[in-house]
Amino acid sequence: MQAFQYQDRELFVEDVPLAQIADTFGTPCYVYAESALTQAYSAYSNAFAGIDHLVCYALKANSNLAVIRHFASLGSGFDTVSIGEIRRVLAAGGEAGKIVFSGVGKSADEMRQALEIGIHCFNVESVNELERLNRVAGEAGKRAPISLRVNPNVDARTHPYISTGLKNNKFGIAYEQALDTYRRAAALPNLNVIGIDCHIGSQLTDATPLIDALDRLLVLVDQLGEAGIRLKHVDIGGGLGIRYDHETPPDVAAYAAAIKQRLAGRGLSLLLEPGRSLVGNAGVLLTRIEYLKQGDGKHFAIVDAAMNDLMRPSYYQAYHQIRPVTRRDDAVATYDVVGPVCESSDFLGKDRELAVQEGDLLAVMSAGAYGATMSSNYNTRPRGAELLVSGDSVRLVRARETFEQLIANEIGLLDGND
Ligand SMILES: *Cc1c(COP(=O)(O)O)cnc(C)c1O
Question: What domain of life does the UniProt record list for this protein's source (predicted)?
Fold first, then answer.
């Protein structure tokens, strides 16, 4: 996380001390480094230069409008999973023609709106969804551009909650049914079959399953060609992992080289849907220690951020490094870093060696992906602020929620509607 470095004893984001941000905007808050967003995007665009490709940032990883706008300014497309996400892209100034719409449960209303907006492609996940989209497009007098999400049945070897490419999974169309489903799609009058896609899982630390999945898709592309169904693009999804601790995630350049080699001479354009690898190491969650507590054989650092702010540790047993914002020379002790929420699973890190005192700030690292977007108001905790830093400039890009906002949809209904 090069954008987050110590200078002397102080942890900085780009040219700004994190302590200064905490003093100005309060804690907990998410802090993003714009240079890290740019760097991660450039790694993809440089690696895939020379072939016809579109990076579609999967914005469920971090859908802050300022983050979307930044990627849009770099030329990015977007992978979305709800009409809400599509509307975010438009609100941030992204192009409709660069949006792909994924997800197993698209409603007819979402389809109508996406057709109206004129998105690039619907990534369809079942036969029944094809039939519904054909009907909705017909009613709207449009032809829906589609790709089928095929389940290549490869093991992503990642956490089961974030593995999506095995056949017992709810996502995609079974590999064995793909040809028949394409024939069905090609016969429906209001659909325009343009692509094939897959997404096998997240936080992959080995690219082999991703390349295997592409090979499986290309076998289908050839079979479809023989059946007279010619595709324009192949979309290989997202899933490249990042370094949270000691992982060695695949190098984007090596990944790109393997893909380019396979696509050479095929006349197919490439779509990619990276999420985590574009934003994960561009953000930290900043939190302050409220109390140090000496349990029976355990030390706790009780901080003002909790599982509602960052769900990954309690939900996936995910590991995030936790660093002091100001380094001390005091003796180190081993702490569980926990939040104020009334659940035993409310922790941000376990058994961490830290030299800290009450009131100190901690940075929970690698929190740019699936952090703010998965946050909730559990325990009536307002979501924290989000800041985007570029050089020495700090921009508030989401204000901390207020109590009044949390109760707004209830207060007028308190004494009934009649
Ligand atoms: C979540 C998701 C992605 C992004 O995955 P990452 O692991 O964050 O890169 C891409 N495509 C689809 C369909 C997804 O659901």
Answer: Bacteria
**What CATH class has 4-32+280-410?**
mainly beta
Is 342 catalytic? The answer is yes
Q: What was the pLDDT predicted at 157?
A: 72
Tell me which amino acid residue 66 is. A
Closest-lying ligand 1 atom to the alpha carbon of residue 280: 8
Give the span between the Cα atoms of 343 and 372, in whole angstroms. Answer: 20
Strands, DSSP E only, in 261-404?
Answer: 269-272, 283-294, 299-303, 322-324, 333-338, 347-354, 361-364, 385-390, 393-398
Residue corresponding to tokens 């002397």: 8
Sorted by where each begins, the domain ranges of the chain are 4-32+280-410, 34-277
Q: What is the pLDDT of residue 163?
A: 66
129 alpha carbon, distance to own chain's centre: 24
**Residue 86 DSSP symbol:** H
Atom number of ligand 1 nearest to Cα 202: 7
Looking at residue 166, its pLDDT comes to 67
Check if 4-32+280-410 and 34-277 are the same fold.
Answer: no
C-beta of 273 in contact with ligand 1 (< 6 A) = yes
Alpha carbon of 209 to ligand 1 centroid (Å): 15
The C-alpha atoms of residue 141 and residue 416 are separated, in whole angstroms, by: 43
d(CA 145, CA 367) in angstroms, rounded, equals: 35
pLDDT value, residue 48 = 98
**Domain 34-277 is in which class?**
alpha beta
**Structure tokens belonging to residue 143:** 């032809």
Q: What share of the chain is helix, strand, coil (3-state, %, to 5)?
A: 35, 25, 40
**pLDDT beneath 70, residues of the chain:** 158-167, 417-418
At 416 the pLDDT is 76
Q: Assess whether the C-beta atom of 197 lies below 6 angstroms from ligand 1.
A: no
Distance CA 373, CA 383 (A): 10
pLDDT at 154: 87
* Cα 81 to middle of ligand 1, angstroms: 9
Q: Is the CB of 60 under 6 A from ligand 1?
A: yes
Q: Is the CB of 27 under 6 A from ligand 1?
A: no
Ligand 1 centroid, distance to 409 Cα (angstroms)? 31
**28 labeled part of a ligand binding site:** no
* Inter-residue contact 384 to 28 (CB < 8 Å): yes
pTM: 0.96
pLDDT computed for residue 155 by the predictor? 77
